[in-house]
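Q: Give me the 3D complex with 0WE.
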Amino acid sequence: MLMQGKRGLVVGVANKWSIAWGITQKLAAEGAELALTYQNERMGRNVRELAETLEKPLLIPMDVTSDKQVIMTFELLKRVWGHLDFLVHAVAFAPREALDGQFVATSREDFRIAHDVSAYSLTALANSAQPLMGEGGSIIALTYLGSTRVIPNYNVMGVAKAALEASVRYLAADLGPQGIRVNAVSAGPIKTLAASGIAGFGSKMRHHRDRAPLRRDTETEEVADASLFLLSPMSRGVTGQVLYVDGGYCIMGD
Ligand code: NAD
Ligand code: 0WE
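A: Here is the predicted complex, encoded as structure tokens.
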């Protein structure tokens, strides 16, 4: 029971395939008390159904691009819990047209949206969480190798993930003196809602499976286990890091 007596917020559950849902289930199994946010009412229906399997979860609507909704979420957490131990950021979005063709053609507006949703949101959430994490806490964000390597079609999302990973380091430096750790988990490709409809995703998965030292797909459950490590006291000496959970794919040169 690694998370017994701990309370945390998970942002990014859309459905049962969501990496955030895999993390939620691990945290619940280790005794954590959980709050989940959902992007909008459409997602809310799924999330409410999934949350029926959890013990007294808090369910809160929050679009991360709305300062007002972010503030309202943390006001509610302060009122009901008064304290927060951990935060999971598992949110990414770029307009569909930006994830196709050349990165060089990215519009100003698509660049702005990708960075607002996928990168700035971590800082907004961390700043709101900070006062609730009195005696320390742990924050993680989900990222992808496209931040440091050119992955065809990942395009502006790769640039946003680079900003997200740099944000993890700056946040770790700012919040470290208060005992708050900030890390990222870089997952290999997994078939989730965010991956559906991405041209050639199947071949991306095959390419990964063929080259990764472990010669298999990345599983949500192993991403969740690494997340649990970073959220628990087991990782108390670790902050500002990107932990790759990709079967070793990122070490290969070809
Ligand atoms: P997912 O579609 O289940 O999760 C993405 C979530 O982002 C959804 O819950 C969606 O509601 C939320 N979201 C998007 N815009 C939002 C907004 N404006 N406000 C609030 N929420 C918003 O897909 P996933 O694959 O589980 O993605 C979770 C995280 O994992 C993302 O950061 C993604 O980049 C990362 N990741 C995914 C993979 C993969 O291959 N699936 C690999 C590495 C990293
Ligand atoms: O971060 C992601 C995907 C995030 C994502 C997905 C979508 C699809 C629907 C962001 N925005 C949107 N916008 C939409 O309209 N991943 C790590 C999964 C992913 O996406 C890829 C990948 C991988 C891996 C896109 C191209 C190449 C590889």
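A quick observation: DSSP finds seven helices and seven strands in the chain.
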